[in-house]
Design a protein that fits this description.
The complex is a heterotrimer.
Chain A lengths: L11 H9 L7 H27 L14 H12 L1 H12 L5 H25 L26 H34 L4 H9 L6 H34 L11 H28 L7 H31 L3 H12 L3 H13 L7 H4 L2 H28 L14 H24 L5 H12 L1
Helix pairs in contact in A: 1-16, 2-15, 3-5, 3-9, 3-14, 4-5, 4-8, 4-9, 5-6, 5-9, 5-15, 6-7, 6-8, 8-9, 9-10, 9-14, 10-11, 11-12, 11-14, 12-14
Chain B lengths: L25 E6 L13 H5 L7 E2 L4 E3 L1 H7 L5 E6 L4 E8 L7 E5 L17 H4 L27 E10 L3 E2 L14 E3 H5 L61 E6 L8 H9 L6 H6 L8 E9 L2 E9 L8 H5 L5 E3 L5 E3 L9 H4 L7 E2 L28 E2 L5 H13 L12 H5 L5 E5 L6 H6 L4 E2 L11 E4 L1 E3 L7
Parallel strand pairs in B: 1-6, 3-5, 9-20, 10-19
Antiparallel strand pairs in B: 1-7, 2-8, 3-6, 4-5, 4-7, 10-17, 11-12, 13-14, 15-16, 18-19
Chain C lengths: L1 E7 L2 H13 L5 E4 L5 H7 L6 H26 L12 H30 L18 E7 L4 H10 L4 E6 L1
Antiparallel strand pairs in C: 1-3, 1-4, 2-3
Helix pairs in contact in C: 1-2, 3-4
Classes of the chains: A mainly alpha, B alpha+beta, C alpha+beta.
């Protein structure tokens, strides 16, 4: 399927060398990148401490818009976190072989995104230092928690997703850590020896390993579909016009996969260029991811249209007003940014020529990232600022504290990803090898 | 008891002679403010923070202009204008609205005091630290009125010109159109006098009467056409309920409130009483501009226009103490729940500030502590706090409790006398202070209580009842003396 | 006892060697491979891994625990929330599902650790060499000293690039 000009890995052993070469001592650019991201993260932490000290007055939140940029960004990162599990688990179950080269990077992105996402509900708490109240632990008050609240479902869904995606990531990584242990000669070999836990690739180990991966995929597939459904129910189970709709769960899941794949493309194209992984991240991968973007973009576009149709068809004046406001009210710019980025910009991907044009794919993926962030912004802000009571309509615009924390969250994911690049193989060696032998067979 | 038209003409007053540079200039009207009167109340932060009954503005003075006059001058809301008379001039933000006659510029008296303590460190006490609004008195030339011998207030023309500057205006309510949503309802006197029994009517979706009044459907006037149902979406009502069921079956009480829109004059005294009773913090001009005022009750002002007549309605809006409250089910930490007496209880100490309850409240009556307002309170001002009500820290939600401290006191009193609470034993601060007795508190489980009778009245309705929130607060429609359609 | 190591280059060749050895009655086999291979697994024919039991037990425990926890906590201090029943089973299904996945996943990994690492860690792995994580497949046979010749013969016929006795 690959174009004739594309290089192919020479031998299974060359696979190890090619991929583990990424782990070699870093360049100056890399170190500067890590430091820059680290500095941005430090800014975000400072902004958060400032907010904790003074209170939520430092944000732009007001009455009636009580959720703002933090929840937008939370949903954004949870969405990004869906790509890894989709590629590793769902495509694994569907036996889509092309996933083998991209799944490690996507899984890493999943883990880092879900860790980042999980921070946002905590730092959006009015009393962040009391976050443990939300856990059902025995306490002297004798009080438990409200299991009927969608926010508690979130705690369990995001918590489960974090743990399962980390476990999935580590399980897939163990054989590659074994390979790294056998190749890397610097101080990290001690680290890899511990982390490999005595992995030698015996038949018994592979038997347990394959079975675990299969079962984890089977568990992660419904989980990944449930997580964004649960996040969507944060909105859909409320009475807020514009939120209270049954389309939200599938709409959010499609949007999550859409944004997740876009972020995978955004990150993998520079990695491919920087580390010379052209033989592994080939046209077929970007072609297939382009197709996934197309289908999810179509679903999301259909959902946008269907929301407006249902608002009209329901004859519910509150819904109608809410959606009129969405398109033509104070936030019209956000709504139209969302529609252009998510529905119009991906349209050229219907042509294969555009899907294998990596420069174009990279630019499209950036637009989709922006558009999907705006989708959550639009859903939250337009609905909350124009609810039932006309005397309590309002407007919200984020403050510098919120923007700083948003930028810091992007930097945090990049920071973790850069560290990961130099510490662990960014492409799943054993899976690429498995594919290599199967193709040779 | 309205004044008969023409009654005043017997007084035969002379029209005022206005001095001024140009006859084209606007007539200056300096009038006493409802909150500060002539200025004696201006030092009280709590009075500065209540919305003006008509403008719904807080913290400041405004040059009120007619809509057409403002258009002629090229002035929009928030544009700082200079009002110049022969006696003096002031600069203040313009506020065009339809409640002012064209050709008039109106300014409230009683503001613009110089700060008593410019160095006060505390940002919450803006009234001490900075000048609020402008003093309109220097605009009056100071002539005496021939008839009364007193100061002639209405005696000058003023030149109004835009300065080019803009000012942020703190507004508690932006729009006065209720968008057919049935918040403040009314019925004509003729319809009321027909004495139709609302329960005899077959309402769409109402599952049969059990004594809970649903109001006289079809008698409301919205805009220029009557709607078949009250509120634009009341056709969505599917279930019937009894508010008495929203308390524990062993509890003798289900507390409820009634707001009579026919007697409510929109004076906002309930807001002051509530703020003082419940230790509501003052957020200051910046907080008010950001929309973070902490009032547990507000008075919504709606203007319905039918033909040439203007129909202004006021609806007090506080926590509805819903039997099936949307706020409760979304709180992850059980900080808000339904108690045995039917109250929607907010435990601020348990709150971690997810703020979902406020998002999910269709009435938007929950208030969030954006700052640590209570830090500003130190002796001796702390003695002004109500010791029966806690002060809330930053990051927690709060809302109307129906003065639960007074309910506890009333129940204790009744228990000492070995009886149950009687009607009138307990009065929340808002109801106690209401000059027109528009608010009534009582036990909805008691068939003979005042609130139960009011709830069964044919003027009775609940706001957003189609959401099946089972509100504990009942509203009674205003009565229109004449039918706007016939005007 | 002796240990003979044969180094092969492909999964199919390794599977062939395993089939030959087992046909000749050698069942004490250990195969090192750089990637999983269904062919080798079929040739060894050791049946499905026990990990699947762990997953099942984990899932059932999780979902049961979740419902019991939620219902018990709702009645331990009953509070009326939004006019709903104390135990709202439909609402509890979500956490029931999530804990089903959580426990299932965690126990699956526990099963992997137990069966892939702890129970096999006491075996003698002196035959392992770093190229087994590269492109070499290792087939190690435990046999009596007098069978070494026969094993070398089978491994050689199966296409081993290198055959040597690891310990005698």
């Amino acid at each position: 399927m690959a174009a004739a000009t594309e290089p192919l890995p020479a031998s299974p052993d060359a696979i190890n060398d090619d991929i583990l070469r990424v782990l070699e001592p870093p360049s100056k650019t890399y170190v500067l990148g890590v430091l820059f991201c680290g500095a941005l993260v430090a800014c975000g932490v400072s902004a958060f401490l400032y907010q904790v000290y003074w209170g939520f007055g430092v944000t732009g939140l007001n009455h009636p818009v009580m959720w703002g940029l933090y929840i937008t960004t939370f949903v954004f990162w949870v969405g990004i976190a869906h790509a890894g599990t989709l590629i590793s688990a769902i495509l694994f179950l569907f036996r889509a072989k092309w996933r083998n080269a991209v799944n490690r990077g996507a899984e890493a992105l999943t883990v880092f995104s879900v860790l980042t996402a999980a921070l946002f509900p905590l730092l959006h708490l009015g009393r962040a230092w009391k976050f443990y109240f939300i856990l059902p632990y025995p306490n002297q008050r004798g009080l438990w928690v409200n299991f009927k609240s969608p926010l508690l479902w979130d705690v369990f869904a995001i918590g489960t997703y974090t743990i399962i995606s980390i476990l999935f990531f580590i399980v897939g990584l163990i054989p590659d850590i074994g390979a790294a242990r056998d190749r890397v000669r610097d101080w990290r070999r001690h680290l890899y020896r511990v982390l490999a836990m005595g992995w030698r690739g015996t038949s018994e180990q592979w038997r347990a390993h394959s079975r675990s991966v299969l079962h984890l995929s089977g568990l992660a597939t419904p989980l990944v579909l449930s997580v964004h459904s649960v996040v969507s129910w944060d909105f859909a189970t409320s009475v807020v016009p514009g939120w209270h709709t049954t389309i939200f769960a599938p709409y959010f899941v499609a949007g999550a996969i859409f944004s997740g794949i876009a972020m995978v493309i955004t990150i993998l194209i520079p990695v491919r260029q920087a580390f010379g992984l052209q033989a592994y991240l080939r046209d077929v991968h970007f072609d297939n991811m382009g197709k996934l973007i197309l289908i999810t973009s179509s679903i999301v576009g259909y959902a946008y249209g269907m929301e407006y149709f249902m608002a009209w068809y329901s004859a519910n004046p509150y819904e109608q007003m809410s959606f009129w406001y969405r398109g033509f009210g104070h936030y019209w710019w956000a709504t139209w940014t969302m529609i252009i980025c998510n529905v119009i910009v991906p349209l050229p991907l219907w042509f294969k020529r555009m899907r294998v044009n990596l420069a174009f794919m990279w630019i499209v993926s950036i637009f989709i990232n922006i558009g999907m962030w705006f989708e959550r912004f639009v859903i939250i802000m337009t609905s909350l600022s124009h609810e039932y009571d006309p005397a309590a309509w309002g407007y919200y615009f984020p403050s510098w504290v919120e923007w700083t924390i948003l930028v810091a969250s992007v930097a945090f994911v990049l920071f973790l990803f850069l560290i990961f690049l130099r510490m662990f193989p960014v492409i799943a060696i054993q899976e690429v090898k498995e594919l290599h032998y199967e193709e040779a067979h | 008891m309205s004044l008969q038209p023409g009654a005043l003409s017997a007084l035969a007053l002379e029209p005022a002679e206005l001095s001024g540079a140009e006859p084209a200039d606007l007539a200056l009207l300096v009038y006493p403010s409802l909150h500060f009167y002539d200025g004696r109340g201006a030092r009280l932060a709590v009075l500065n923070e209540i919305p003006d009954p008509v403008l719904k503005t807080m913290w400041g003075s405004f040059a009120e202009l007619g809509i057409e006059t403002a258009e002629r001058l090229g002035v929009r809301l928030g544009d700082v204008v200079r009002v110049q008379t022969e006696a003096g001039s002031v600069e203040l933000p313009a506020f065009p609205h339809q409640g002012v006659r064209e050709g008039v510029v109106a300014v409230q008296a009683g503001q613009g005091h110089r700060p008593v303590d410019p160095d006060a460190p505390d940002p919450d006490r803006q009234a001490r630290r900075q000048t609020i609004g402008v003093n309109a008195y220097p605009l009056i030339p100071g002539r005496l009125d021939a008839a009364s011998g007193a100061l002639a207030w209405y005696s000058a023309r003023a030149e109004v010109s835009a300065t080019g500057a803009r000012a942020l205006v703190a507004r508690a309510q932006i729009g006065f159109d209720q968008e057919n949503r049935g918040f403040a309802r009314a019925m004509t006197l003729a319809a009321y006098q027909r004495e139709e029994d609302p329960h005899a009517k077959a309402d769409s979706g109402h599952g049969g009467g059990h004594g809970d009044g649903h109001g006289a459907e079809g008698e409301d006037v919205y805009g220029d056409k009557p709607l078949p149902a009250q509120g634009a979406a009341s056709h969505l009502i599917t279930k019937d309920y009894d508010p008495a069921d929203d308390a524990h079956h062993d509890s003798p009480y289900r507390w409820g409130l009634n707001a009579d829109l026919d007697t409510c004059v929109g004076c906002n005294a309930c807001i002051v009483a509530c703020a003082v009773e419940n230790n509501s913090p003052i957020v200051g001009p910046e907080g008010a501009r950001a929309g973070r005022e902490m009032h547990w009750i507000r008075v919504e002002r709606y203007v319905e226009t039918a033909g040439v007549k203007v129909d202004v309605r006021h609806a007090p809006m506080m926590c509805q103490h819903c039997g099936a409250a949307p706020c409760e089910s979304v709180c992850p930490v059980l900080a808000t729940y339904h108690n045995v007496e039917g109250l929607n209880v907010m435990v601020s100490n348990r709150c971690i500030g997810t703020r979902f309850c406020s998002n999910n409240c269709p009435y938007k009556v929950r208030r969030f502590n954006h700052w640590a307002y209570d830090w500003a309170i130190e002796e001796p001002e702390s003695f002004a706090l109500n010791p029966d009500v806690m002060v809330r820290s930053k990051g927690v939600m709060e809302k109307c409790t129906m003065c639960v401290q007074r309910i506890a006191e009333g129940k204790d009193e009744a228990a000492r006398e070995g009886r149950q609470v009687r009607d009138g034993d307990i009065t929340p601060a808002c109801a106690q202070t209401c000059p027109s007795q528009a608010l009534t508190f009582g036990n909805l489980k008691h068939a003979d209580s005042h609130v139960t009778h009011q709830r069964h009245d044919k003027r009775s309705y609940r706001i957003l009842e189609h959401l099946y929130t089972r509100p504990g607060v009942n509203y009674q429609k205003a009565i229109l003396r004449t039918d706007p359609h016939e005007a | 006892m002796a240990q003979v190591l044969g180094i092969l280059r492909t999964p199919s060749a390794t599977a062939g060697a395993v089939r030959e050895l087992r046909g000749a009655g050698f069942e004490k086999l250990e195969v090192y491979s750089p990637c999983p291979s269904h062919e080798i697994e079929h040739a060894l024919d050791r049946g499905p891994s026990r990990v699947r039991i762990y997953t099942l037990v984990g899932c059932l425990t999780g979902v049961t625990l979740a419902y019991l926890m939620q219902i018990w906590m709702a009645y331990d201090w009953p509070l009326v929330i939004g006019g709903k029943p104390f135990a709202s089973i439909p609402a509890y299904t979500i956490i029931g599902f999530e804990m089903n996945i959580l426990f299932g996943g965690v126990l699956t990994v526990a099963g992997l650790l137990i069966h892939g690492f702890f129970l096999t860690s006491r075996r003698d792995h002196s035959a392992y060499q770093p190229s087994f994580s590269g492109d070499d497949f290792g087939c190690v046979v435990d046999c009596h000293d007098d069978q070494v010749g026969r094993v070398r013969e089978i491994l050689g016929e199966a296409g081993c690039a290198e055959v040597r006795v690891v310990s005698a």
